[in-house]
Design the sequence.
């Protein structure tokens, strides 16, 4: 298959539009259309459904897209490992992640990894979990570390651990000494909550719906550090995952208490890569460290 045609095909698949792919590639729409037409003639089947609002991959198109992405990453792996035989030993790891584990946990993992791979370079992009997974699926990132509530297609899950929701509060808060709290316990206090697009908030809203509780938070934000700082200065309660705040509890006078409602125990923290991809040695070692650190966060103490 012609590599230029495959590159054009993947860009159209990524953008869902000939015009958008044309803008990104600086190639005329007519040229893109011709190349895709040639691919479809070669395959003997349509690769896209042409719809009024864009181009959608057919089943055959999805198979070809997955193959092309894996092939591109395999070429990159071989090239990288050959270059790694030189004195530099440089390797670049592209990580996509949910926001919660990005500020503290992942930088600690990176620092620990440098002890074994001093030539490593890291690219971290933070987004909603669905976007992080899509980045791995499309091959723009090597690994995703994100929260998930449902199985994902075309990704391999190397590790998954339940990530229950905790109530976050000041250490002096009246509820801080509890072994656990219920949703009903939280309703008596001001709430500082993440925006509704976050998995943690989605689970909380489901639990509230089942309990027939209407919640009016005093503060909402898409930035969890702002929520944490608000909690530090008030009697408000926020919601969090344990890894998100583990390193800040003592130094910032915060406490976490498990929330007992079963609905708030439905998400998992997953480590994902593209399905069917052969992983470079350094990436495999990084994933191994990442999963060990999720299981035993104390491994990172002192980094």
Sequence:
């Amino acid at each position: 298959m012609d590599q230029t045609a495959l590159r054009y095909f993947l860009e159209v698949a990524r953008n869902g539009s000939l015009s958008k792919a044309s803008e990104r590639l600086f190639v005329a729409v007519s040229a893109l259309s011709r190349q895709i037409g040639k691919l479809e003639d070669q395959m003997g089947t349509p690769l896209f459904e042409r719809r009024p609002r864009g181009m959608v991959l057919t089943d055959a198109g999805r198979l070809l897209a997955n193959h092309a992405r894996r092939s591109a990453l395999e070429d990159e792996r071989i090239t990288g490992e050959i270059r790694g035989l030189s004195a530099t030993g440089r390797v670049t790891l592209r990580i996509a992640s949910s926001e919660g584990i990005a500020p503290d946990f992942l930088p600690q993992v990176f620092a620990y990894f440098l002890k074994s791979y001093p030539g490593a370079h890291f690219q971290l992009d933070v987004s909603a979990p669905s976007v992080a997974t899509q980045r791995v699926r499309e091959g723009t990132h090597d690994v995703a570390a994100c929260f998930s509530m449902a199985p994902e297609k075309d990704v391999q899950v190397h590790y998954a651990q339940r990530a229950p929701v905790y109530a976050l509060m000041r250490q002096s808060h009246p509820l801080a000494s509890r072994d656990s709290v219920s949703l009903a316990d939280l309703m008596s206090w001001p709430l500082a909550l993440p925006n509704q697009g976050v998995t943690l908030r989605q689970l909380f809203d489901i639990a509230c719906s089942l309990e027939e509780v209407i919640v009016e938070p005093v503060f909402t934000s898409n930035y969890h550090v702002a929520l944490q700082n608000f909690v530090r200065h008030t009697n408000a309660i926020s919601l969090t995952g344990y890894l998100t705040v583990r390193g800040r509890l003592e130094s910032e006078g915060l406490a976490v208490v498990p929330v007992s409602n079963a609905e708030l125990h439905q998400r998992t923290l997953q480590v994902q890569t593209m399905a069917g991809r052969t992983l470079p040695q350094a990436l495999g070692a990084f994933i191994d460290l990442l999963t060990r650190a999720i299981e035993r966060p104390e491994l990172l103490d002192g980094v």
